[in-house]
UniProtKB/TrEMBL annotation:
Record-linked InterPro entries: FN3_dom, FN3_sf, Ig-like_fold, Striated_Muscle_Regulatory
Pfam families for this protein: fn3 (PF00041)
PANTHER family attached to this UniProt entry: NEURONAL IGCAM-RELATED, TITIN
Biological source species: marine metagenome
Name of protein: Fibronectin type-III domain-containing protein
SMART domains, alphabetized: FN3 (SM00060)
């Protein structure tokens, strides 16, 4: 009987130690947020300390400055990102992420802010000037509305006057507002149009330039 009592007490002690050793996980690390058109993607890294038992999921929260656009979501343990859609552009949202294990939900990460944005407006004042050697110099003004995010480049299209549009430069990858089109046929007239890129995508097209005929070499 005494031996049985000793075994029982030992088992209770092991259970108590086990219960004490399993605690909630630490906060996820490297939390970041990338915004786009009406959406934000939040990413993170697993906690450095899982509390002694496997992480079973994550809890993502978000709120706007007034608190009127707030919410939360449970994310599976295998994921380290969450994409939130249907947000209002030009409103800044704050996000946190916490991890959950069998002992409960741990502390939230440091908050991270992101502002969804929309496509840029159309560039303005597009001009096209003929240059010698089958070239045309293009110049334009940046969009009056960048959609809430910095312009990162421009798309340039051309067509033979009255014909179908074709891409001349998919993305200039620069904020410069001029470009020299080369290798053009001096025997025909060309039109050009330009649109701006930001992180939400390609914006509205400018009005076509006046028709221009390159100068022969």
């Amino acid at each position: 009987v005494a031996g049985t009592g000793t075994v029982a007490l030992f088992a209770l002690g092991v259970a108590a130690v086990s219960a004490q050793s399993d605690v909630v996980p630490g906060a996820p690390t490297s939390v970041a947020a990338t915004s786009s058109n009406a959406e934000v993607t939040v990413t993170w890294s697993v906690p450095t300390a899982n509390g002694g038992t496997a992480v079973t999921g994550y809890f993502v929260t978000w709120t706007s400055p007034t608190g009127s656009r707030s919410g939360s979501a449970n994310v599976v343990a295998s994921a380290t990102s969450y994409r939130l859609t249907g947000l209002q552009n030009r409103v800044t949202y704050t996000f946190t992420v916490s991890a959950t294990n069998a002992a409960g939900t741990g502390a939230a990460s440091a908050s991270i802010a992101a502002t969804p944005h929309t496509l840029a407006g159309a560039p303005a004042n597009l001009t096209a000037a003929a240059l010698p050697g089958g070239q045309v110099h293009l110049s334009w003004a940046p969009p009056g509305d960048n959609g809430g995010a910095a312009v990162s480049g421009y798309r340039i299209e051309r067509r033979v006057y009255g014909g179908e549009w074709a891409v001349l430069v998919s993305n200039t990858a620069t904020t410069l507002t001029s470009h020299v089109a080369i290798g053009l046929d001096p025997a025909v007239f060309y039109e050009f149009q330009v649109s701006a890129w930001n992180s939400a995508g390609m914006g509205a097209l400018s009005a076509p330039s006046p028709g221009v005929q390159p100068v022969a070499p």
